[in-house]
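Trying the structure run again after the queue cleared.
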Amino acid sequence: MPYGAARGNVRPTNRPPTSAVKVFGEGTLPTRPYKPIGDVFCEDFAGEDAHVINHLTAKARKIGADGIIMLATLDASYEFNPFGRVGNKHIWRARAIVFEQSQ
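Done. Tokens:
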């Protein structure tokens, strides 16, 4: 999977891009009612959490999400590049959500 790629189930929302996305940590759910609109993914080296969160939130903003709920990371691979970075890579996953309007 390419760096910063987003894939998975993304439901068409016909929502314009959002300017801000709230991030909920793994195991933390929003207190407001919400519905999922898709999953976003990013593969990168371990220890690149802040960089990955920026990519995940950018993708979520693009599809009109109000927030993302972080999911467990997956081990992707070990990369050896004698001219670059070497180490374990992970797949960060997040569920993109929209808050439901109160009636």
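The CA atoms of residues 66 and 98 lie 5 Å apart. Worth checking whether this holds up in the mutant runs.
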